[in-house]
Amino acid sequence: MHARTRDRDRGIGLLVVLVWLSLLASAALGVALATSAEAPASGALHERVRLGRGAESAAALALASLGAVVDWRFVPTVGVASPFVDGPPGLRPLGAATLDLLAETSLRTCGRPAPCDDVSTSVSSVPRPWGVRNPRWRLVVHAPLADVDATAGAACACYVVAWVADDPADDDGDPLLDAPSGLAGHGVLLVRGAAFGEGGGLAEVEALVAKPCRRGVGACTGIRVQSWSVVGGGAP
């Protein structure tokens, strides 16, 4: 595929994502304004809804970045270059608290905020049951939602983060590489999207995504979402 075609497709993908973000944000903002006098419990529900939409937005932005990558073979190792970042990973102010992007990545990779090693990452647990195939999450998106889209940021004053990892069910058994062509799991990755609220709230979603392949066509193109789920309780 020519560079001009890739740039055009990437631009179209980003435009679709941003329009979708704006529509979600407008709906969420309308609900928030219409119910601003309701009880605190209702306010908490609306906050969860807003954060949930923010997490979905983070995952969608990660998909837009993945869509610009022709070959996903090394994505689980090096991640993806994305325009939706606000500088090198590290500490970020979030309301009265501080968000540590590196610690949050480690929490999802090995269950602790300290840097992960192969031993800790390969321990089987309820959220990470695949042992040596457990995902090695790589940051793709990290920025205030308002920096991506002002309307979305007005509806959810949250910080969005997304990670990508190899599909732990693929046939190569290597969590640092996408399965090569011809093996089950080729062109399949995991994406995790999260939204962190200024008041300490958190919502997360996870998607299994694939680059569809057609018989007789050398390259796999596009992105198909094969499954989409809420990460229970917002826990890593």
Number of DSSP strands? Answer: 7
Order of helices and strands: HHHEEHHEHHEEEE
Considering DSSP H and I runs of 4 or more, what fraction of the residues is helical?
A: 25-40%
Q: Characterize the biggest β-sheet.
A: 5 strands, antiparallel
First-to-last CA distance: 38 Å
Regarding quaternary structure, how should these chains be classified? single chain
Which structural class do the helices and strands define?
alpha+beta
Stretches where pLDDT is under 50 for at least 5 consecutive residues are: 1-13, 31-37
Separate helix tally: 7
- Overall average pLDDT: 82
Global Rg: 18 Å
The shape is globular
Strand % is: 15-25%
Strand order of the largest sheet: 3-4-5-6-7
